[in-house]
Each structure stands twice: as C-alpha cells, then as structure tokens.
Amino acid sequence: MTAWAGIADRIGQAADSPFRIARRDNVGGGCINEAYVLYGTDGRRYFIKLNVVAKAAMFAAEAEGLKEILSSHTLRAPRPICWGEAGGQAYLALEYLELDSRGSGARLGQRLAAMHRTGQPQFGWRMDNTIGDTPQPNTPCADWVELWRDRRLRHQLRLAAEHGAPRRLLDKGEQLMAELAAFFTDYRPAPSLLHGDLWAGNVGFADGEPVLFDPAVYYGDREADLSMTELFGGFGSDFYAAYREAWPLDPGYAVRKTLYNLYHILNHFNLFGGAYAAQAEAMIERLLAEAGQTRPR
Question: Which of 197, 214, 221, 225 is catalytic?
Fold first, then answer.
C-alpha cells in the first residue's frame, strides 16, 4: 500500500466514513516537513504533513500538543485527525482550516491570556516534543529555574558545542547557568499552558477567530510565549495591550524576555548556524551584566 492510500484509509477510519482522494496539492512545508492539502471525492479536505519514518514521534507529540490547546477551550487550533506511519513515511493529518493573516490582534491577546491561565501542578509536560527540528525535553519538575536551566538553555548549549559553537559562547553560557536564579528573586511564575513556538508564522485567523498551529507545547512561565512574539515581530500593539489588560505582566519581564529568547536564538544556531552564535553571545553578555556577573575579557 502506498503512503497516500494508507493515509486515506486511516482518515476514513478516524472519520468513520470512507475517504477517497480526488487530488492533492503540494503547499510546501518549510525546511522540516512536506505539506499537502488532500481533497476527497466528497468535498472533504485535510492538511497533511509528511516526513521520514523517524519523525513519527515528532508528529505524535504535535498532535497531542494541538489537543492540549483545544482542550483549554480558549484558542482555536487545527484538530488532529490521525497520525503515524504509512507506506514508509510518517504523516500527520489535520483538519483543514482556511487561514488568513488578517484578524483581531486584540482578540488573539485576550484568548492567549486565557490559554495561559490553563495550568497544571508542575512545569514541563507529559511527553517530550520538538522546537523546530530540535528535540525539546519536557520531563516535569516543580522548579521553573531548574527546567529553564537544564531542559532549555543547557540542553541547547550542549547541542551548540556539538555544532562547533565558539568556546567563549559556551563558557559565558555556563556562567549564566550558575546565575540564573538571580532573575527570579522576586518572581514566581506558575505553570501555564504555552504554545512554545509562538512566532507570527504559527498564528493565523479562520472565520475571524485566531488560530494557533505548529506548537511545541509545555507548561511554563507565560512570559516565555510573550517573549517570542517580540523576537521576530508581527504582533501589533493591540495584541499586547489586550493581553496586558487581561493579565498584566511583572515589571521584570523587560529583562527576562532576553533570557527566554536566548533559547530560540541558540536553537536557531543549532538549526542554521551562522551569525546566531554572535547574537546568542551578545544576549548572554547582557544577561550577565543584568545579574551583576560580568567578567573581564
């Protein structure tokens, strides 16, 4: 059985209605996955992601992350239909949504604040997932500083060492790990449901309602999501005003957002290399200065 025949068969089983393919359109998929819109002979449409079989666990975690967002009853996300392996390929079949980039930023800010109020007792999540194509460990723990230090920044620094990062970047990174608690002396975040990869390319609107997709879900400090919205831009002032009205931010966010975005810049170095190493090093130097831990060069 070919991959497409197997996917169609499993969609039919999941939907409890046989599904026959009329056509499929390749819609790209960035640098990680192939992506298609699958059209049925009965008019149904599904969004399909494909990758090598080794990525089946990545798709399973993405499906569970989308379900986690949907279960919060706050923001819309494409509903996972089925996922697994078919014809020698890993796949994820999702509800097809007609997405538009235009919509209410204020509505998105309000609903994101509501999603962040969804919590659990510990930080992390019940399963590991990926940030882009990089493994993201989510082993739960009660201490946020521990999770951010060991499962986020130190994890990325170890990968950076394997990818040939400059020694000075790694050394300064370890200095920062030793001083991380300094950023949380008067601030105790609660475990909030996070999208985890919240840049403008993972947000859209369907029928006027904001939609989140391509998540890297875990429970953590809500500031981590907000920080990433500022990293690459694309979110308007109405979004931030509505979020802050719904749930004001701690004054220390202005400093901690660099700490949270360091994770994504290190990840970009591990994925793409290049100038991201210098950017990460500059961020670490700013953070060490904020912690009062600058070292002579």
Answer: 197
